[in-house]
Specification:
alpha+beta, three-stranded antiparallel β-sheet, 3 helices, 3 strands, elongated
């Protein structure tokens, strides 16, 4: 019987997603770094802002998981599922995410982060005009 709540599972899932997203953004920043695009500086600044926001969320989620006595012990991969071994208040279980779910959730989360960044840019440009 699992003793992890739905809210804790959601935090756990989002924390795991952020690890993958952080790596994806870092890889993209590396690609941009070597490009000759005229907007290279802008893209790097935006990417670094996304990365910083993700790190803030990761820190918050890691703290919440620690307060709930939940630890991620490791992961393993099957054909279509990535299992994370977790220890929740003394009980060990596998937390599985399919690759399709990972892709869909990462897309949704990245959209959320980029929308938030866009809103911040709009707000800043409005303040400059005032």
């Amino acid at each position: 019987m699992s003793n992890i709540t739905i809210e804790e599972r959601t935090i756990l899932r989002d924390y795991i997603l952020l690890q993958y997203m952080e790596q994806m953004v870092r890889n993209s920043l590396g690609d941009i770094e070597h490009s000759t695009n005229i907007l290279k500086r802008l893209y790097l600044m935006a990417g670094n802002a996304l990365l910083e926001r993700m790190k803030q969320d990761q820190y918050r989620m890691r703290r919440e998981l620690k307060q709930s006595n939940i630890k991620i012990l490791g992961d393993e991969q099957d054909d279509f599922v990535i299992y994370h071994h977790i220890n929740c208040r003394g009980y060990t279980e596998r937390f599985g995410l399919t690759r399709d779910v990972l892709k869909a959730e990462i897309s949704l989360q990245l959209t959320k982060y980029t929308s938030e960044l866009g809103d911040n840019l709009k707000e800043a440009s409005t303040k400059v005009k005032s």
